[in-house]
Amino acid sequence: MKKILVIGIIFLFIFLSITPSSAVDNVKKPVTPISNGNILYVGGMGLGNFSKIQYAIDNASDGDTVFVYDDSSPYYENVVVHISINLIGEDRDTTVIDGGKRGDTVTINSDGTTVNGFTIRRDGWYDDGIKINANQSNIFGNIFENNGAGIYSFRTNGHVVQNNIFYDNHEGMRLIHAEKFHIENNDFDANYMYGITLFYGSNNIVSYNTITANTNIAIQQSYIGINVGESSDNVISNNNIISILDTCYAGIELSESTNNVIQDNTFVKNGLVRFLSYQNTVTGNTINGKPLVYLEGETNKVVHNAGQVILIDCEDITVQNSEISHARSGIELENSKNCDISGNSMFYCWWGVFLKSSPNNIVNNNRINETRYGIHIDNSRNTVVSGNTVENNMYRGITIDSSFVTIKENIIRNNSYGIWITSGIKNTLMSNEITNNYRGIYLIRAFSNSFKKNNIYNNELDDAYFVNSFLNKWFRNYWKDIIPLHRIKGEIYIERGWHFGSPPPIIIPIPNFDILPAKEPYDIPIAG
Predict the structure, then answer these.
(1) Farthest CA pair distance, the chain
(2) How far apart are CA 418 and CA 375, in angstroms?
(3) Side-chain half-sphere of 54: how many Cα atoms within 13 Å?
């Protein structure tokens, strides 16, 4: 009677495996044919049933089905599938294949293999749950836990991965040089580093998955939901990517990737990160219920009420009246100019505002707090930062790695470093309130910058300090101490080797001076 029920389950499985999906589908999916092959049984009490999964596979032929009962579970095996079969477990919650510490739990070496109805696990994150060395497999309805990668593939194509649970793996899926994968309706929860890794891949579809980050705060700081590197022509759509804590690194990261479609995804407490990635289509996505605005090559637009803003090669864009939180970068500009970022609030981001190679922009009257780096200006000349309140940021309030930047009339307080200038030349900082930071102003390899009429006091370690920085001018700043000549500490630092056993660096203390410090603090208005 039980075998009759099993046969019914197998035919139901075959029917489901050929049912078309309702998702966006421009990739041809493999179809598991209805086979007249034999059914081989593993476990249970039946006469002639095999005691191990591998014994059944070794006695099967192409097109056969190996059905595994949960009576004898867990099966402590490292299974190698070397023929095209349907490998089916009785119940994914109770039919367990445990690879121990001996290698990959299941290895697929034959095209057209199906794996369904198992919990696939290992004892540690060293090897993988399923390692795919063939094409056009169908993997659905399984649980993957405690593996290096739940599924690992290198240079294979045409697989369908549906309705699986990936829990507590180092990575949910790791796909290298993958093509024509269809990854749909899976649940990725509490995996250590990444939900899905896709490197050097093309023409894959990742849709309708739920990816939830690990709740360990140390892990979340580097967690990426979907990590896409040097890949093109993929569709990532209609996924829910959820962070529980406030520190997730990225929902989706695009690194050196082009011509991908990122569409209709829902980000919660995370967002989109990109690095050297261009000509991607990013549309219809939301972050914390607000639109992710991604513009490339656009001009003369107004953006407001956004959840994250990314501008690439844009000009004359106004970003205003947005309250942005829990994104890697709240507002990011690359190769964009003449933009106005005004009247926004950023908090719980890694960067509040990030400008890269973007000259002639205005950052005005924004509130930036509880980020890691408030405002970061990288090679963005003639930027004006004025009237902002930048406070309570973990590392730096304002970072300047650029020249000819004007920082004026800002409130910069309660940050680790109020202002950090590295390799900056001829920047002007005037009429700012720089107070109650761990270090008020820090300069390293910075030259010919001007500091005048700022309030710089009550900073814990130093109000200002410089390293290998020269020709900087300090004039009429208020330091709280009423003396005719205010001394600013600094040093010349000469490294004498980086390897173990090198002699210690040479450190020569040198001062600079504010020759006419103010006797009273300046009245600097707080941004509205």
Answers:
(1) 101
(2) 11
(3) 12
The arrangement of strands across the sheet holding 389-391 comes to: 323-325, 345-347, 367-369, 389-391, 411-413, 433-435, 455-457
Percent of the chain with pLDDT over 70: 91
Average pLDDT over residues 349-361: 97
Q: What is the DSSP string of 110-177?
A: STT-EEES-EEE-SSSSS-SEEE-SSS-EEES-EEES-SEEEEEES-B--EEES-EEES-SEEEEEES
For residue 388, pLDDT over 50 is answered with: yes
**CATH number, domain 298-394:** 2.160.20.10
Enumerate the domain spans of the chain: 298-394, 413-528
Cβ–Cβ < 8 Å for 309, 293: yes
Quick one: tokens of 449?
A: 């910058």
| CA nearest to 168, candidates 150, 187, 145, 148 | 145
> Phi-psi bin for 388: left (phi > 0), alpha (psi -120 to 50), beta?
beta
- Kindly tell me the sign of the dihedral angle through the C-alpha atoms of 13, 19, 25, 26: positive
Which amino acid, residue 497? G
Task: Assign residue 427 a region (left: φ > 0; alpha: ψ between -120 and 50; beta: otherwise).
Answer: beta
**Structure tokens given for 125:** 């994150």
